[in-house]
Amino acid sequence: AERFDKARWLSWTYFPLADSAYAIGDFETAERAILRSLELRKSTPGLDAEMESRRDTANQQAIAALVLARRNRNDEAVAQITPALAFQRELAMLGGYDTSQTGKLLT
User: Fold this and answer.
1) CA distances from 44 to 5, 32, 81 (A)
2) What is the pLDDT of residues 18-38, one digit of tens each?
3) pLDDT-derived band of residue 105, with 50, 70 and 90 as boundaries?
4) In the list 3, 37, 69, 107, which could disulfide-bond 14, CB 3.0-4.6 Å?
5) Whole-prediction pTM value?
6) CA 49, chain centre distance (Å)
7) Rounded to an integer, what distance in angstroms lies between the CA atom of residue 97 and that of residue 3?
């Protein structure tokens, strides 16, 4: 449980760092942070078990793809965005509406 909690908190910390670095054009820092966050999510069993966590991973994969594309590493960008797009297609096949989005849409 301690390893899981640590990985979750670190992932939550690296993601806004990557997002902020991307926003100011610091693509090197953004890449390091987002890839570290994704590495933690991938290497920690159960971190992607819930729908909300799967969505977080897909969002992070999209940011990683943007960062890598900005750094002209297009093959790596495609590798990052492919599972995120597959997740979105899965949601669409489930009916096109994800009820866990309701709270996010209301805020």
Assistant:
1) 10, 18, 20
2) 999 999 999 999 999 999 999
3) very low
4) 37
5) 0.82
6) 14
7) 33
List C-alpha distances in Å: 72 to 31, 69, 76, 83: 12, 5, 9, 20
Tokens matching residue 80 = 């990052």
6-15 contacts, C-beta under 8 A, 24 or more apart: 7/40, 7/41, 7/43, 7/44, 7/47, 8/44, 8/47, 10/36, 10/37, 10/40, 11/37, 11/40, 11/41, 11/47, 11/56, 11/60, 14/40, 15/56, 15/59, 15/60, 15/63
Instruction: For residues 78 and 16, give the distance between their C-alpha atoms in angstroms, rounded to a whole number.
Output: 22
Q: Are 59 and 22 in contact (CB under 8 A)?
A: no
Cα–Cα distance between 34 and 56 in angstroms, integer? 12
